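Invent a record, attention on tokens:
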Amino acid sequence: MLVSIPIINMLKAAGFGFKVNNVMSHETFSLVCYAFVDDTDLVHSSIDNLGLDALINEMQEVVNTWEGGLRASGGALVPDKSYLYLIHFMFTNNKWRYSSIEDTPAHLSIRDVSGHNRVELDRLEVNEARETLGVFIAMDGTQEEQMEALLAKVLRWADRIRSGQLTHHEAWFSLILCMMKTLEYPLMATSLSKSQCDTIMKPILDAG
């Protein structure tokens, strides 16, 4: 973070980031990124509401500024670990919906680790989740991939508990201090329904 903070301040000073006005207090809320150690999600909204093309150009400047700051500090972005979401809404059939990649073609690029070649970033649909710090997050809040990931861990644990030669105490220890901790970790960043939680818990309770 000691390396990231000066670069974050560079982006803020340049006017980049996401800004929104509170309709009740009339205060402006802004942020530049979400960061944890070396895992960073840059966010940006249009500065002057000049349209989608202007937003893409601004976002490319954001990425270039971030990448330039990293290289100046001795680091670099890794294309295989970087990707792009574009959140845009369209009004069709009397309601708002997220636009798809087909609706709003857009591309961003970064230099590879060597710095000699530019690589186009993967762009994901808003309902497509990627794992970030152990949690599968999609921009539209879809929880399916997160649930599948947790269910896979649960079924693997339950199968090992059934086939293992554990005492009651060892099984209880494994349940409370291992499996349940695995499930608790992502809960603050998810919005699983009660039905989904029940589905995840059933194999655990059956095996336990």
Notes: The two ends are 41 Å apart (CA to CA).
